[in-house]
Amino acid sequence: MTLRNTLDQAQEEATALQATADDLGAQLTAAREQIATLEARDCEDQATIDALRPLVAPHCPIGFAGTPPTGIAERAHRVYLNPGEAFPALPPGVLPFVTFKGANDVRLRCDQARAFGAPLFLGFAHEPENDLTPQAFIAAWQVLGAYCPRNARTVMVLMAATYAAGNADVWYPGDDAVDVVGADGYDWAGARTDKGGDGYSKPGASHRSFAKIFEPVEAFAARHGKPIAVGEFGTPDDHDGPQRKADWLAEAGAHLRATPAYVAATYFQHSSKTGDAKCTWSLDTPEAIAAWQALLDDPYFGGL
Question: Where are the domains of the chain?
Fold first, then answer.
């Protein structure tokens, strides 16, 4: 091979290498531009969603923790997931209010929420005071706060009694991890025990309004600049006056409407029965169902 041939071959190889480099560079540039476009579109779409949301959804969607009464619609639904249970499939227009167990499932649940795509609430460990330590709870929540997708809002659900006792700070994972402060709270007056016998769950308890039950929650949320979601609330049947439950619900609705911090509320649609004991939280009287339907018909809570 002559020197000329060697130079020509080297030139051809150099040209080919340059073409390859140019092609890789063009692909890299295109990839970067695509990423930038997607990021910009993501922010733009989120801003659009945030701007349109008040026009197409209730300010404070209401629904049930439990199966709704026959023929009653809902705009939010409380979902409790144990490890291994599938992510919920709910009708369009119903906000999933999801809490899950299993500290090892945090990233899996975030991926499932991302795949779900629509807005939802997502929280780890419903009422952790029952079976977790604050340290374990907060550790899992740090992961949830880091990996929660854009379409989800994290909601921490403690018992209302924990806020009332001034102990919520012990469980709080921090403002960076928590988007929404949540609580479960009840009017216990007249609630019968579900442990047998004929005693009351809370002997001597007097009726408390929704506003009174959640007052400490409101104070905590205001201190941290967070909205509020009520995961469970309820009042028992009063067999001496069935209208009392309906009136309690109407007062709860009036308070929710007058307090813009509330962004969701799900009623505890369950009853417990053991022997002669009965604690009926569920809405199963005409008066209570009519009171709930009146709330649901209001666009603020779910009506369109």
Answer: 1-56, 59-296
Q: Do the Cβ atoms of 182 and 264 come closer than 8 Å?
A: no
Over the stretch 56-87, which tens digit does the pLDDT of each residue have? 357 999 999 999 999 999 999 999 999 999 98
- Radius of gyration from C-alpha coordinates of the chain: 27
Phi-psi label, residue 76: left if phi above 0, alpha if psi -120 to 50, beta otherwise: beta
Q: Which range is least confidently modeled, 53-57, 124-128, 196-200, 204-208?
A: 53-57
- Count of alpha carbons within 13 Å of 165, Cβ hemisphere only? 10
Tell me which fold the domain 59-296 belongs to. TIM Barrel (3.20.20)
Give the C-alpha separation, 175 to 173, whole Å.
7
Q: Which residue pairs from 256-260 have beta carbons closer than 8 angstroms and sit at least 24 positions apart in sequence? A: 256/60, 256/62, 256/210, 256/301, 257/60, 257/298, 257/300, 257/301, 259/218, 259/228, 260/59
Query: 264: which strand partners?
Result: 229
CA distance 213 to 184: 9
CA distance 265 to 210: 11
Q: How many CB atoms lie within 10 A of CB 179?
A: 20
In sequence order, the β-bridge partners of residue 186 are 234
* pLDDT for position 194: 53
DSSP state of 200: B
Complete DSSP assignment for 32-50: HHHHHHHHHHHHHHHHHHH
Hunting for tokens 């975030």 — which residue is that?
A: 110
Distance CA 57, CA 55 (A): 6
pTM to 2 decimals?
A: 0.78
